[in-house]
Amino acid sequence: MSDGFTLDMLGIPSSWNRGTGDWMGVAAVMKRGETVEVIQEVGSTLWRNSLPEKHCLYWDGGNLLPIKGRIWISFTQRRFAPESVLPKVQWHPRVLWIGIGCQAGTSRELIETAIAQVCRAYHLAEGAIAGIATIDAKSGEIGLLELCRSRNWPLKTFAADVLSSVEVPNPSNVVAKTVGTPSVAEAAALCAIAQIVTAHQQQETQISINHLRFSQCIWASHSLLVPKKVFRSEKMPGSVTIAVAVCPIDYPT
Questions:
Q1: All residues at 6 or more sequence positions from 139 whose CB lies less than 8 Å from its CB, including other chains
Q2: How much is the pTM?
Q3: At a CB cut-off of 8 Å and minimum separation 6, what does 49 contact?
Q4: What class has domain 96-246?
Q5: Do residues 140 and 106 make contact, with C-beta atoms less than 8 angstroms apart?
């Protein structure tokens, strides 16, 4: 028995976004005290510390009872079969950083459309997007600013010399001659997660930034989910390059 423990009582971080699924079905399973399996692929696990002594959630294969519901915690946009008898829901921690390079005057609509297309193609949940990263020369780009403001996404910008120090899979000599770095989208996405990892490590251990400064970049080089993709449209001005990286630490609100 779960002593009335319900889905709404989970101490899920406020920055996580609800995804699709049968929320009423999973809530009913939990209310009855039946077994719900939790599959967590990303995000903080501190919410588990707030669970009551008697609860119906299990993870890491610690349950032998029949599973009556499932909770996914990931950046993946899953499609659940409507005919499934097992109710499922998904939470999306904010762990995805979208690196963007764009021509001057690129519209918000084109940038937003490009991000949506990448997310669909790679089965990424837009609810898992933490923010946008780009070169500091684009800090005043109207399309980017409008998009970030409308979606409540932070915009992180980095100097060309910082971006040029990051190893990426698809550097461009043409881009390097134009903006001073062989990569904007890929390098900016990786720099965003490296910055967050560094800040977290400093907070947790109080280690000097000089000791951490590019140890995280070795790790970050393995964190690029989507290499750069270029988008153009005859109906919308400009062009935009998109890359996506995943951070091990979810971004708070």
A1: 155, 157
A2: 0.89
A3: 11
A4: alpha beta
A5: no
Distances (CA, A) of 221 to 5, 122, 170, 248: 41, 19, 12, 13
CA angle 85, 66, 80 (to 5 degrees): 30
Residues recorded for the chain: 253
Going 196 to 200 to 201 to 206, the CA torsion angle's sign is positive
Exposure letters 16-36 (e unless 16+ CB within 10 A, then b): bbebebbbebbbbbbeebebb
CA angle 76, 79, 84 (to 5 degrees): 130
Q: What residue segments make up the domains of the chain, in order of their start?
A: 7-92, 96-246
Q: Are 201 and 212 in contact (CB under 8 A)?
A: yes
> For the segment 185-232, what is each residue's pLDDT rounded down to a tens digit?
999 999 999 988 888 777 665 434 333 343 444 445 458 999 999 999
